[in-house]
Write a structure and sequence with these properties.
This protein is of the alpha/beta class. The chain has helices at 16-24, 39-47, 54-57, 76-89, 103-111, 155-167, 183-190, 203-215, 247-257, 277-286, and strands spanning 3-12, 32-35, 63-70, 95-102, 117-119, 123-127, 139-143, 173-177, 195-200, 223-227, 238-244, 261-273, 289-297, 300-307. α6 packs parallel to α7 and α9 (247-257) runs parallel beside α10.
């Protein structure tokens, strides 16, 4: 049986989202986060019950745990070193533990945390393995994230999708940079975009994005997912562009996005920890963007921009 290395990063619960963002930079596939700080509220919201297992009630509410998984071909110490350095830089106290697990175990571990979720006013994200759900007259986005980033449960993705809901108009062509599981590209087309082009540096993520398109009845040529280094394989002009990545990548990417923006294009950037917002803001202004809208949730920021 193929064994992977499980890395568990324990941090103060109020910093768990920041730690998760840092951890997600080390692997192109699934991570999951244990956070029991709002256990009762979430149990009622998701499962509509207030009867909770005693073992869960005993969990430490002051700590959050980020789990990531390193394939047998990779060196887990590289990920540990990177994560440790970044957590120290952000003044986040932490403990790191390593262990072994079968691939099947971690794939099933994170699935138990992924439930149908309503986003904005128009969308419902449905995990492909769940058939019992109430769409409530929303567009249903069926998702099998596999090992690619992007389930819609994270604040950065939800903020992006809410912005798409407000700005996508019928007939628009969309570009999704760092498409991951393809969730934003699928959402854009369900909301009315004529086409969606996605690009990601991870070949496996692109494969997952293509499959997620098929789950939602989307395929070539209107749903076009590409493997490449951000914008190196892109051509044409787009009326809406999304980049749900991290602050450093947004700062690096923004100048090269400009040639692909239509005259009135909307540029949506997310994945920004609030402590890095000023840097991203300065980069956008320097490159001639006017920030028209700011969305924020739990310390994460999404900015909606247009060229001045």
């Amino acid at each position: 049986m193929e064994n992977w290395t499980e890395i568990k990063i324990t941090v103060p619960v109020e910093r768990v989202d920041e730690a998760g963002a840092i951890a997600s930079m080390t692997v192109p596939y699934g991570i999951y986060i244990e956070d029991y700080s709002n256990l009762e509220e979430e149990a009622m919201e998701i499962a509509k019950i207030d009867l909770i297992d005693e073992e869960l009630l005993k969990k430490d509410r002051t700590k959050g745990i980020v789990h990531i998984y390193i394939s047998p071909e990779e060196n887990p110490q590289e990920a540990v070193s990177f994560i440790s350095d970044r957590l120290h830089a952000e003044n986040i106290s932490f403990e790191i533990d390593l262990g072994n697990c079968a691939r099947e175990d971690w794939e099933n571990n994170w699935k138990q945390y992924f439930k149908p979720i309503k986003v904005g006013k128009k969308l419902l994200i449905r995990p492909a393995w769940i058939d019992d759900y109430d769409a409530d007259d929303r567009c249903v986005l069926t998702l099998e994230p596999g090992v690619a980033f992007g389930t819609g449960t994270h604040e950065t993705t939800r903020l992006c999708m809410e912005a798409l809901e407000e700005h996508v108009c019928p007939g628009m062509d969309m570009l999704d940079v760092g498409c991951g599981s393809g969730i934003l590209s699928v959402a854009g087309m369900l909301l009315g975009a004529k086409s969606a082009t996605g690009v990601d540096i991870d070949r496996l993520a692109v494969k997952v994005a293509v499959e997620n398109g098929k789950l939602n009845g989307l395929s070539e040529p209107s749903f076009h997912m590409l493997h490449g280094n951000l914008t190196d394989r892109i051509s044409g002009k787009y009326q809406i562009v999304t980049a749900n990545i991290v602050a450093d990548a947004i700062i690096m990417l923004t100048p090269s996005v400009i040639p692909f923006l239509d005259k009135e294009a909307v540029y949506i950037v997310s994945g920004i920890i609030d402590t890095r917002e000023d840097e991203v803001h300065a980069c956008l202004i320097e490159n001639g963007f006017d920030i028209t809208e700011r969305k924020t949730e739990s310390g994460w920021v999404c900015l909606v921009c247009k060229r001045m």
